[in-house]
């Protein structure tokens, strides 16, 4: 049995064991990796982002009442709630992605119906690959399938972000949900976080994205993420007072920035400089990846990591060890941070034929350097959140 068929069979068996019958509907949504544009999304900037071929599956069966029951196969935990009284679960954090999607879809007027569901994911959790967005988007598509309505992918992403911001309580931007909802097989996305639109960004044949997880803890909620966001808003507000066309750092040109940089508190000036530079690197990297320009890819990613370390200050020592390791590995074209930083996953661009020696080298060298065994995932872009028919055994 191939892997997807085995996965579907295991989920069906677990579903029957719990609910006494077979699932009728299936949805899936992928995790994501950002290739350029760290922290630019909440500044209304650009991001080069890609879905990965690791995803969350939801198998479900409609119910006659307004109860939602969801069992996580990975966690062995279950959440149950009524669509008429959707409140956060104080004990089970994961359950709030399910409840949050129900809440925002209900508020947006979609006709929700109850269901029994089983959830399984192959997206590494708490690693910066957006397992939470994958769960939100897969659950959102399941509410759509069971409720018999249709929802546009961009709207689903916006509602997912709303669930995360207002229900779960994480002040994230649009990047994760957008990529998981809209992403495509075969290419990355060049996302404009202001207009919430994207264009396809193909990657030249022969270049593979390899995710290397530092396996160091990263906390997004209540962490430095909020501090960075506030510093960017402070910078944007300073320019907005002087230039009426400015609402976000996206609107601040290098020229205006240099004219006022010295007037800003030092940390705010460095955060702003990084965002301006990082934003400019996004279309440049998209072009370089499409053209297969190894030198430009290397230079842009190196500058991105240096800025993340020196200006935005979102790196930790294990990320430096991982960066050096990836860059020294066979077949490596370039490497940088991914996600919010502060540990978690990083991304390398690797020559396709050299993936095996790259993986071996990084596994051995990072383990001896950092004292932690990394996890390494060569990835391919996969389709965005959708309903699907599970492969037969
Ligand atoms: C997290 C957030 C995103 C984005 C990135 C940093 O993944 O959820 O919205 O801000 O960090 O680019």
Structural write-up:
The protein has helices spanning 3-19, 95-107, 131-147, 153-168, 175-182, 224-242, 254-260, 266-291, 294-310, 317-328, 355-370; strands at 25-36, 46-62, 67-72, 77-82, 115-121, 188-192, 197-201, 207-213, 332-337, 345-351, 375-379, 386-387. The radius of gyration is 21 Å and the shape is globular. The model has no long low-confidence stretch (mean pLDDT 96). Strand 3 and strand 4 (77-82) form a beta hairpin. The protein folds into two domains: 3-202, Ribosomal Protein S5, domain 2 (2-Layer Sandwich); 207-379, GHMP kinase, C-terminal domain (Alpha-Beta Plaits, 2-Layer Sandwich). Strands 1, 2, 3, 4, 5, 6, 7 and 12 form an eight-stranded mixed β-sheet that branches. Helix content is 43%, strand content 22%. It has 393 residues and is α+β, with helices and mostly antiparallel strands. The chain has eleven helices and twelve strands.
- The count of strands amounts to 12
- Percent range of helical residues: 40-55%
CATH-scheme architecture of the largest domain: 2-Layer Sandwich
Give me the oligomer status: single chain
The rounded distance between the terminal residues' Cα atoms is 6 Å
Bound molecules: alpha-D-galactopyranose
What letter string, H or E per element, gives the SSE order?
HEEEEHEHHHEEEHHHHHEEHEE
The first-level CATH class of the largest domain is given as Alpha Beta
Low-confidence stretches: none
Q: Biggest sheet: strands, sense, closure?
A: 8 strands, mixed
Count of distinct structural domains: 2
**Total helical elements:** 11
Mean pLDDT: 96
Beta-strand content: 15-25%
Summing up helix and strand content along with how strands pair, one would put the structural category as alpha+beta
Nearest-angstrom radius of gyration? 21 Å
CATH topology name of the largest domain? Ribosomal Protein S5, domain 2
Shape: globular
């Amino acid at each position: 049995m191939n892997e997807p068929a085995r996965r579907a069979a295991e989920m069906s068996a677990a579903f029957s064991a719990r609910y006494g019958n077979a699932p009728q509907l299936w949805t899936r949504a992928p995790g994501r990796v950002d290739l350029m544009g760290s922290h630019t999304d909440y500044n209304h900037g650009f991001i080069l982002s890609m879905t990965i071929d690791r995803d969350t599956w939801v198998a479900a069966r409609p119910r006659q009442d307004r109860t939602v029951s969801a069992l996580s196969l990975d966690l062995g935990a279950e959440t149950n709630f009524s669509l008429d009284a959707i409140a956060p679960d104080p004990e089970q954090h994961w359950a709030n992605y399910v409840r949050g999607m129900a809440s925002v879809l209900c508020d947006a007027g979609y006709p929700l119906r109850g269901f029994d569901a089983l959830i399984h994911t192959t997206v590494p959790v708490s690693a910066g690959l957006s397992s939470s967005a994958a769960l939100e988007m897969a659950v959102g598509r399941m509410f759509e399938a069971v409720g018999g309505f249709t929802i546009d992918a961009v709207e689903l992403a916006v509602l997912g972000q709303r669930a995360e911001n207002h229900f779960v309580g994480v002040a994230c931007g649009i990047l994760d949900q957008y990529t998981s909802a809209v992403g495509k097989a075969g290419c990355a996305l060049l996302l404009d976080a202001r207009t919430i639109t994207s264009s396809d960004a193909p990657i030249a044949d022969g270049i593979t994205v390899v995710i290397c997880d530092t396996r160091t803890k990263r906390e997004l909620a209540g962490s430095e993420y909020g501090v960075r966001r506030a510093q960017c808003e402070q910078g944007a507000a300073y320019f907005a007072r002087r230039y009426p066309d400015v609402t976000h750092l996206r609107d601040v040109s290098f020229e205006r920035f240099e004219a006022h940089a010295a007037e800003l508190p030092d940390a705010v000036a460095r955060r702003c400089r990084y965002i301006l530079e990082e934003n400019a690197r996004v279309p440049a990297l998209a072009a370089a990846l499409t053209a297969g320009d190894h030198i430009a890819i290397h230079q842009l990613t190196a500058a991105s990591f240096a800025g993340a370390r020196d200006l935005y200050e979102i790196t930790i020592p294990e990320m430096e060890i991982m960066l050096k390791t990836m860059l020294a590995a066979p077949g490596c074209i370039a490497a940088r941070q991914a996600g919010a930083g502060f540990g978690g996953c990083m991304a390398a661009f690797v020559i396709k034929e050299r993936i095996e020696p790259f993986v071996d080298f990084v596994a051995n060298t990072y383990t001896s350097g950092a004292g932690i065994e990394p996890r390494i995932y060569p990835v391919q872009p996969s389709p965005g959140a959708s309903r699907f028919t599970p492969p037969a055994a």
